[in-house]
Amino acid sequence: DSGVTQTPKHLITATGQRVTLRCSPRSGDLSVYWYQQSLDQGLQFLIQYYNGEERAKGNILERFSAQQFPDLHSELNLSSLELGDSALYFCASSGRTVNSPLHFGNGTRLTVT
Amino acid sequence: GQNIDQPTEMTATEGAIVQINCTYQTSGFNGLFWYQQHAGEAPTFLSYNVLDGLEEKGRFSSFLSRSKGYSYLLLKELQMKDSASYLCAVRGSRGNEKLTFGTGTRLTIIP
Q1: Tens digits of residue pLDDT in B88-110
Q2: Which residues of A touch B104 (CB under 8 A)?
Q3: Could you report the per-residue pLDDT of A23-64, keeping only the tens digit for each?
Q4: Staple B87 to which of A4, A109, B94, B104, CB 3.0 to 4.6 Å?
């Protein structure tokens, strides 16, 4: 158990809809990262938050947005969903030192029909 | 930017040793990480290298050469449960702590 909690585990929705994915980081971790993993593809970095502030942005679509709340949990909002958005979405958290690895949650499997 | 290359697939025999290579090109470097990922599951952390040399952790070892932009993960005494994808990831310079992942090497262990 990594200590990172993601909900829901599975999400099935229709094209055009909007969903929210939730993540609680490990106790004490201030950084939260969101990654997307499509079938048979690598982990694509979406966005990072550190203590409530956006820290880095990757290839995140304009239809996607995220935030980190004062209690450090984070939400990833996906809107106007398309079939190609079907993927595993992982949240990860890390400690403050440069050698701190990312610890991943179990992911949310999103299926857009 | 960062570019990371790994072989797509490898096969090895139970009880044997396998080496998975990773080459990278990066504009900033603050360490290289190896992760294991079973299909449909979360990646789990295996090892971290920031200085040149070998880091050993049980059956797994990882090597780094910063001048060559090269790393490898060595798995010994292979077990069937080691069948998984192995992901190489590079951390950027300070202020850019995200990990950039390679596409992973799918390792299949055969009896």
Answers
A1: 999 987 767 789 999 999 999 99
A2: 42
A3: 999 999 999 999 999 987 789 999 999 999 999 999 899 999
A4: B104
**With helix as H, strand as E and coil as C, how does A63-107 read?**
CEEEEECCCCCEEEEECCCCHHHCEEEEEEEECCCCCCCCEECCC
Residue B82: helix, strand or coil by DSSP? helix
User: Which chain A residues are within 8 Å of B86, Cβ to Cβ?
Assistant: none
Closest by alpha carbon to A89, among A41, A49, A34? A34
Q: What is the total residue count of chain B?
A: 111
Side chain identity at residue B98, one-letter code: K
CA-based nearest residue to A47, from B97, B104, B43, B89: B97
Give me the amino acid identity at B28: G
Exposed (0-12), middle (13-18) or buried (19+): which is B79, by Cβ within 10 Å? exposed
Instruction: Confirm or reject contact between B98 and chain A (CB < 8 A).
Output: yes
> Is B102 in Cβ contact with A42 (below 8 Å)?
yes
Question: How close A3 comes to chain B (CA, Å)?
Answer: 12
* Contact between B57 and B47 (Cβ < 8 Å): yes
A104 contacts on B by Cβ (under 8 Å): 42-44
